[in-house]
Specification:
The complex is a heterodimer of chains A (170) and B (476).
Chain A (H helix, E strand, L loop, with lengths): L2 H22 L3 H21 L3 H26 L6 H4 L1 H25 L9 H7 L2 H9 L3 H23 L4
Helix pairs in contact in A: 1-2, 2-3
Chain B lengths: L1 H9 L1 H19 L3 H22 L5 E3 L4 E3 L2 H26 L6 H18 L3 H19 L6 H32 L4 H6 L1 H4 L3 H17 L9 H7 L2 H22 L13 H20 L4 H22 L2 H28 L15 H4 L1 H15 L5 H15 L3 H27 L12 H19 L1 H10 L3
Classes of the chains: A mainly alpha (170), B mainly alpha (476).
Chain lengths: 170, 476
């Protein structure tokens, strides 16, 4: 058993268990902390799959920035209706239904449809594609227009947020 | 070298708006008279981009490593977006001061939203569709809630944001499934493998999710719930932009991505979905609009039913249908901007004069406004000499050519229903006495914008053949 496989199983177990713990906690704060653990496990999975850039982004963006936002919102709102979910059986059934559809779709994708067939033949190329160097090269050659468009998107979002939040009325 | 220059020449519309947006930021920051300069600068940018797109309509090319297309249909969409936006900017000069909030950012966000639409219409890659959609939507969310003091504006902005983000989620999920089956985000790759993959369940699920997401954006029936509230809450000029530019951009994205379905080379497998939501939107919009008392809500329901007519053209699945849809979008853009423009002119401070009562007896006091509004209402109802009639005509003919006569008949029935609520306003204006003491200062720029859109509606109505021939030429 290679080290990679052992690490894959380890990280996979961490993210599976932490996600189950996340949805079964009643305290929203503890749920959010388990979500961070889940993200950390996922980024470990990405590392074992040779996607270093995505792993680092996962830690910085999700486990870092987004989770801080989540925690702020939870602390500011002080969820007093935390039992809301368990008192609403319809909501629970709906959630189970959606989760079931996604699960079926994933099972179908992995075991029936084989969408990755023929795509992962060139292992060396896919290993190379995960490095930051290669991503940077792609970003500034083939994907330069989406890159610029994303810049405009961020600028427009910043302007919109500032207009809505900061402008003083006379 | 010459080749590079040609590519540069072809994307001038996008470069103009991209650069104009940055210059507008500087104007807003450094000029004391920015509230006078900025609107006219915005209009200049839009007109320059629009006329360039019109002039370079024949220079078809694909640039940026197969990311962006120029020329042909793409330029026709550019013309619709930029001229529509120029009319919106002209309408806004006085309206936005009357509405109570002048911000330079209004015009800046207007430009970014148009840039997003143009990126969507020209996209050759699902990345570009997504980024263009988000650029447009983010600008729209902030434009809707520009006036924080009004509860309704806040509601509109938040509702649009939450439901828009939900729709984007559908689109991204769809893109993920499409990428999973095609192994590429390039639209050309998707088109070339469409037939082979049309039996793949995952691929079809991806395409359907993608379409459901865009059904939100075009305001089709089961996904329409945001439309009336958002149109009512946002500034009237901006509601005009949502119903024209936003709808045209979403249709352009559908046509660009699934274009292979609509050129008749392979069967239109999405026909059942498109036909069903088209019938539902037409009838729902037309019937509910009858009971509306607020003119903006009425126009919102009319916008839902127009989404239904437009979907008939896509359900027909032949090149006449798509050409008809683009023609319809062009005529719908100008007539709806005219309608929202007149509502913006009549609207008083604090959202007064928005009920149908304010329109009764309008003809005796403001004969010009009443005449212009009647032309627009006739056109929206689809009465012959105006642009609206020919839009519906081309779309219905395309449906009949694809043996979807039942769909065309249902479309005609629904537009007969819609005649009732459009012409009711004309009757109120000409044959009733005024119920309210209506006093308005008709803004000159606003009136000019309305007159321009009415003239465009009449011109498109007089010479529909030239325009439809130009559009159909690019489908050969």
């Amino acid at each position: 058993m290679s080290l990679q496989l052992i690490l894959f199983i380890l990280f996979g177990t961490i993210s599976a268990i932490s996600s189950v713990l996340m949805i079964t906690r009643t305290n929203a704060l503890i749920s959010a902390l388990f979500l961070i653990l889940n993200f950390a496990g996922l980024s470990g999975l990405y590392l074992t799959l040779n996607a270093q850039f995505i792993a680092v982004t996962q830690v910085i963006v999700y486990a870092g920035a987004i989770m801080v936002l989540f925690l702020f919102v939870i602390m500011l709102l002080k969820p007093e209706h935390e039992k809301y979910f368990s008192h609403q059986p319809k909501l629970k059934i709906f959630a189970f239904f959606i989760a079931f559809i996604v699960f079926i779709q994933l099972v179908f994708m992995i075991f029936v449809s084989h969408p990755s067939q023929g795509n992962n033949a060139n292992v060396a190329a896919s290993v190379k594609a995960g490095t930051i160097e290669e991503i940077g090269k792609q970003l500034y050659t083939n994907y330069v227009l989406p890159f610029e468009a994303a810049g405009y998107l961020l600028l427009a979002a910043t302007i919109g947020a500032i207009v809505l939040a900061k402008k003083k009325f006379e | 070298m010459l080749n590079n220059f040609q590519e540069f020449y072809n994307i001038i519309p996008i470069l103009l708006i991209g650069a104009g947006f940055l210059i507008s930021l500087l104007i807003e920051m450094y000029f004391k008279k920015s509230d006078v300069i900025l609107p006219w600068f915005t209009i200049l940018i839009f007109l320059a981009a629009g006329f360039h797109a019109l002039y370079a309509v024949n220079s078809v090319s694909v640039i940026f490593q197969n990311m962006l297309a120029t020329g042909g249909i793409v330029n026709i969409f550019y013309i619709i977006f930029t001229f529509g936006a120029a009319i919106v900017a002209l309408l806004s000069i006085d309206y936005i001061k009357k509405y109570g909030t002048y911000f330079g950012e209004y015009y800046i966000l207007l430009q970014t939203s148009i840039l997003g639409m143009m990126l969507m219409a020209g996209a050759k890659d699902l990345f570009m569709i997504f980024l263009g959609l988000e650029l447009m939507s983010v600008s729209f969310y902030s434009l809707a809630g520009l006036n924080r003091k009004r509860l309704k504006a806040n509601e509109a902005s938040l509702k649009y944001f939450l439901l828009g983000a939900f729709a984007t989620g559908f689109i991204v999920y769809g893109i993920a499934l499409i990428y999973g089956t095609v192994h590429s985000t390039s639209i050309d790759m998707i088109a070339s493998r469409f037939y082979e993959l049309s039996s793949d369940k995952l691929f079809i699920a991806g395409i359907l999710l993608f379409l459901i997401g865009f059904s939100f954006k075009i305001a089709a029936f089961p996904f329409h719930m945001w439309v009336p509230d958002v149109y009512e809450g946002s500034p009237t000029t901006i509601a005009g932009l949502f119903s024209t530019g936003g709808k045209a951009a979403a249709f352009s994205a559908i046509i660009v991505t699934l274009g292979v379905l609509f050129t008749g080379r392979i069967g239109n497998i999405l026909m059942p979905y498109l036909a069903v939501i088209s019938v539902l939107s037409m009838f729902y919009g037309s019937i509910v609009a009858i009971s509306q008392d607020n003119i903006k809500r009425m126009l919102a329901y009319s916008s839902i039913s127009h989404a239904g007519y437009l979907l008939i053209g896509l359900a027909a699945g032949n090149s006449f249908g798509v050409a008809g849809v683009i023609f319809y979008l062009a005529s719908y853009t100008f007539m709806n901007l005219g309608a929202f423009g007149i509502v913006a002119l009549i609207e008083g401070k604090d959202e007064s004069n928005l009920t149908l009562k304010s329109f009764s007896g309008l003809a005796s006091r403001y004969p010009l406004l009443a005449a212009l509004f009647s032309i627009i209402m006739f056109s929206l109802a689809g009465i012959p000499p105006f642009a609206g009639f020919f839009g519906k005509y081309y779309v219905f003919i395309a449906a009949i050519k694809s043996n979807l006569t039942w769909l065309a008949i249902l479309g005609v029935l629904s537009s007969v229903i819609s005649v009732y609520f459009y012409l009711r306003i004309v009757v109120l204006m000409y044959f009733k006495d005024a119920e309210t003491d209506l006093k308005i200062d008709v803004s000159k720029t606003g009136l000019a914008a309305v007159i321009i859109s009415v003239l465009l509606v009449i011109i498109i109505g007089i010479a529909p053949g030239t325009i439809i021939d130009l559009i159909a030429f690019f489908f050969k």
